[in-house]
Amino acid sequence: MNRHDTIEEQAALWVMRREEPGWSSFDEAALDDWLDQSDLHKAAFWRLEHGWRRADRIASAGVGAPERKSPRQRTWRNAAMALAASMALVFALFSLQIVHLPAESGREVAVSQASTDIGGRKLVRFGDGTQVELNTATRIRAAMGEGRRVIWLDSGEAFFSVAKLNGMPFVVHSGDHAITVLGTKFSVHASGRTVDVAVAEGRVRLDDRGSGQPARSAVLTAGQVAVAGDNKTVIVSDQAALERHLAWRRGLLMFDDVTLADAASEFNRYNRKQLVIADSRSAGIRIGGSFQAGNVEAFARLLHDAYGLKVRTMPDKISVSA
Amino acid sequence: MVDEQRLNRWFCESVLPLEPALTRFIRRNWKDAADVVDLRQEIYERALIGARAAIPTHTRQYVYTVARNHLINRAKRERIVSFELVADMTAFDRGVDAFGAERQLSARDELRRALAGLNQLPPRCREVILLRKVEGLTTRETAERLGISINTVEKQMTQGMRALVDHMLGGPGRIQRPSILRRRSKGPRP
């Protein structure tokens, strides 16, 4: 075993993963970080990338690819997987799991990760006293120690209670946005290319590093909610809006004059049984109120009782129509 | 200061084609064959560091000089200077001629080489590489198609990629034997 072997193996993983769907600008930043660590890394990566690209010609040669499994087999396996997943969901539903991730290990900064399934919630504690509460279908990665505290919110939503450590910033990356913390409590929700940040206590700085535009930066204080999209960031100071943004921590969804379509997509974040609004007239109905996020059936019943909508329940979805 | 994009282009277009000659040069002048790949990578590293100030106009001469100096330094540090090494190194001008320019490969040569490299891979590994290159499947899709774990796909893919690239650049293109460390370290990303 030699040093080069390890580096080349890592370089190969980078080359491979960069081709995968879901490669984000922050994966790119992590790769840049690795490349900048040493020209040994750069040489290994550039060499593999170059040679691997040149091997693309294989595709033009019409080499036979392995035989495809029949669609029937695939459907059965998918169904079995979905069943297993929904059974797991029953147990995971709103049980608050607590796991500990190591703050650091040895000399190298440990990169750890935590995630929740649909409907899951989880509290993660770090060695520095920071706590991160993960909402449904959420994945974070963390690099803590060695003078830095960095968390990547790859998907979903999380509430951060950041322990104040002198001189040690705490940064949350999500999409093209970076949130730098100065000892505070706040939540971040990554949704497509938009990021919502709701600050419960203290102060955070929201930086935008989308490509092809000048960097933008905004400071948010307690009670403010920011919605940062591709080209603009909207900040509101509204205690009620803040409460709605943090309601998930109590297992609730709170709506204030939103369309049924928007409410349905919120419910669908928490439940495998998807709520489908079948016609545009129903989709435009505006609703408000607090609901149990995990109880989509109750919400559908309410739609029937209060608005006279037709509700059809199927194994994997609930269809609502006028 | 040379920007990284230019450095990358120079490295891929001018340095990597020298790899067969560089590998031969190291092998000829170094006793322990197990060190060859390590040494080559260190020479690449030094070549990049030096070229960042200015891209050399005579890359062949430059890489040869970097390689020669590095081997001498390593030999001195490890107190294993052999007379052959020093003799060869001092015959500088003759040395750089032996450090021959490789013929530029045509597209047809390149394809032939890629296919030959592919055929050397073990069957499972070849299958994984083909699914990626021909059908463009993701790691997850490949795992589903072959009924194996994502971890196995990643392992086969990185091994196959490394062997194939080695072959594309004129090396033997053999799979590195799996090491204990690889199983332990999960790579750059969790």
Keyphrases for this structure?
heterodimer; A: 322 residues; alpha+beta; Phage tail protein beta-alpha-beta fold; 3 domains; 14-stranded mixed β-sheet; 3-stranded mixed β-sheet; 19 strands; globular; B: 190 residues; mainly alpha; 11 helices
Question: Would you kindly provide a written description of the structure presented here, covering whatever features stand out?
Answer:
The complex is a heterodimer of chains A (322) and B (190). Chain A is of the alpha+beta class and 322 residues long. Chain A is 32% helix and 36% strand. Chain A folds into 3 domains: 3-92, no CATH class; 97-244, Jelly Rolls (Sandwich); 251-321, Phage tail protein beta-alpha-beta fold. In chain A, the strands form 3 sheets. In chain A, strands 1, 2, 3, 4, 5, 6, 7, 8, 9, 10, 11, 12, 13 and 14 form a 14-stranded mixed β-sheet that branches. The radius of gyration of chain A is 23 Å and the shape is globular. Chain B has 2 domains: 4-80, no CATH class; 84-176, Winged helix-like DNA-binding domain superfamily/Winged helix DNA-binding domain (Arc Repressor Mutant, subunit A, Orthogonal Bundle). In chain B, α7 packs across α10, α8 (123-133) packs across α10 (150-168) and α9 packs across α10 (150-168).
